[in-house]
């Protein structure tokens, strides 16, 4: 299961042959491109930031986002993810403004957000600050009144002879997705049209990739078809909102969603699981996915925030310790807009409900983690980062400790994943002891064999040698 299977892009070769002419020597054929799930390189140490354009500013526009780009750069963000930018369907619309995931026209901009030139300006300024921009892409379905449904009904799935809401992975209608209509990837024309639409935004606005909504409801062989077409325009970062298809890392995607990580950490925070559950999770993930896989980890996103609760509601006092884990464990960390301000709102999904920005109370906390992620190779993603080495303790049920090292960079993380004081003795390997800087303190910490630490409830210690 651990075999890494590479997707090989076929290279068309031809030669002219004529018996009446001598053989013509030609240049060696271009070697086939090997898909590397850890590329592009610029994503190796990036922090992802999800932006809900509708709620991000009082204006709810691209301009409202553009004006805050310098602040996001200072925070340490590397990749800005914009939720869907397209017009929203009106037929079967939910709420007043509808779901951004009910796309009416893949080639147009939601007029509430501005114009295509406003988006271009946003991307231009982001690139000027060395930030990347990815768009949320919804390939599985459109709105019921979409341009495609009007002009190309053949692109859509028929269920019992009629158009249908999206079908789940078992081929059953998803009843509560009543505002969208399922696309048929059994039709080659649908595939071709979708790839062309994705290429349009790469060419027109120079975006840097896509976060793909419900990527697993689209056949994986489509993504194998899409990747070389997208890559022919520019190298892109592809994030799959799906965790159950390891083949995504072989076809198109650089990272997927860490839903299981989110579930396990919430359970630990509530007391339903303990720290050793992270060992079980890591063993499962390492077995299930190819080498150098990368998952995106989060304590908040638009779904969690609206449907489940704010970070405080979901994690309570344990929120910060799991954010530390999110940045240091082994994947790519993601922040949802407002987390740096201690977002206490459950942002309405179907109405205008702008963030009530205050004084960015958690800026310094996240900035330290973002800077560590940027500068210390040990906690980079995939093949670029160091292997996670568990540090045994006498309290593994409650205290989770590990080290990572890459090219001389080292990070040691010790977390009290319980709501009680814990005194733990650590037993690090022989290559770990030494002097380290405390990321969240001013002191130098001397790590020794059989060192003992007393940690308050949900307390964390992040040590770095640089």
Distance between the termini: 37 Å
Question: Can you tell me the CATH class of the largest domain?
Answer: Alpha Beta
- The CATH architecture of the largest domain is Alpha-Beta Barrel
What best-fitting shape do the alpha-carbon axes yield?
globular
Mean pLDDT: 92
* Sequence stretches where pLDDT stays below 50 over 5 or more residues: 1-33
- Tell me the number of structural domains: 2
Class from secondary-structure proportions = alpha/beta
Q: Could you explain how this protein is built, in words?
A:
By secondary structure, the protein is α/β, with parallel strands linked by helices. Helix 6 (188-205) runs parallel beside helix 7. The strands form five sheets. Strands 1-2-3-8-9-10-11-12 form an eight-stranded parallel barrel. 27% of the residues lie in helices and 18% in strands. The protein starts with 47 loop residues before the first strand and ends with a strand. The protein folds into two domains: 41-385, Glycosidases (TIM Barrel, Alpha-Beta Barrel); 390-464, Immunoglobulin-like (Sandwich), CATH 2.60.40.
Briefly summarize what is shown.
This protein is α/β, with parallel strands linked by helices and 466 residues long. The chain is built from 14 helices and 20 strands. The chain folds into 2 domains: 345 residues, TIM Barrel; 75 residues, Golgi alpha-mannosidase II (Immunoglobulin-like), CATH 2.60.40.
């Amino acid at each position: 299961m651990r075999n890494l299977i590479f997707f090989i892009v076929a290279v068309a070769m031809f030669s002219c042959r004529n018996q009446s002419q001598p053989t013509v020597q030609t240049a060696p054929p271009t070697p086939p491109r090997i898909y590397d799930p850890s590329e592009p390189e610029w994503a190796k140490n990036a922090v992802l930031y999800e932006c809900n354009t509708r709620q991000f500013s009082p204006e709810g526009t691209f301009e409202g986002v553009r004006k805050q780009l310098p602040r996001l750069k200072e925070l340490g963000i590397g990749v800005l993810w914009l939720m869907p930018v397209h017009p929203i369907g009106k037929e079967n619309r939910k709420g007043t403004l509808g779901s951004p995931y009910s796309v009416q026209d893949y080639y147009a901009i939601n007029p509430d957000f501005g114009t295509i030139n406003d988006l271009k300006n946003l991307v231009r300024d982001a690139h000027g600050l060395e930030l990347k921009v990815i768009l949320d892409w919804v390939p599985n379905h459109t709105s019921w009144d979409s341009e495609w449904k009007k002009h190309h009904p053949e692109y859509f799935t028929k269920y019992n002879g009629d158009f249908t809401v999206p079908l789940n992975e078992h081929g059953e209608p998803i009843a509560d997705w009543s505002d969208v209509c399922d696309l048929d990837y059994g039709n080659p024309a649908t595939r071709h049209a979708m790839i062309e639409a994705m290429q349009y935004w790469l060419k027109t606005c120079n975006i840097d990739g896509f976060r793909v909504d419900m990527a697993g409801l689209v056949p994986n062989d489509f993504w194998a078809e899409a990747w070389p077409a997208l890559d022919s325009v520019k190298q892109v970062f592809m994030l799959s909102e799906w965790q159950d298809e390891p083949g995504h890392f072989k076809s198109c995607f650089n990272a997927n969603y860490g839903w299981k990580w989110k579930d396990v950490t919430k359970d630990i925070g509530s007391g339903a699981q303990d720290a050793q559950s992270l060992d079980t999770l890591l063993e499962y993930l390492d077995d299930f996915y190819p080498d150098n896989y990368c998952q995106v980890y989060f304590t908040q996103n638009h779904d969690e925030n609206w449907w489940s609760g704010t970070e405080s509601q979901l994690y309570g006092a344990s929120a910060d310790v799991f954010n530390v884990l999110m940045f240091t464990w082994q994947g790519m960390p993601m922040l949802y807009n407002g987390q740096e301000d201690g977002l206490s709102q459950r942002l309405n999904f179907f109405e205008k409900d702008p963030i009530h920005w205050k004084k960015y109370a958690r800026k310094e906390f996240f900035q330290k983690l973002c800077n560590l992620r940027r500068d210390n190779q040990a906690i980079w993603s995939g093949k670029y980062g160091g292997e996670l080495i568990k540090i045994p303790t006498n309290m593994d049920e409650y205290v989770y400790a590990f080290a990572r090292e890459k090219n001389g960079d080292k990070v040691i993380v010790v977390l009290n994943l319980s709501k009680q004081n814990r005194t733990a003795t650590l037993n690090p390997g022989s290559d770990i002891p030494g002097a380290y800087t405390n990321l969240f303190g001013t002191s130098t910490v001397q790590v020794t064999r059989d060192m003992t630490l007393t940690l308050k409830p949900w307390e964390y210690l992040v040590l770095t040698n640089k």
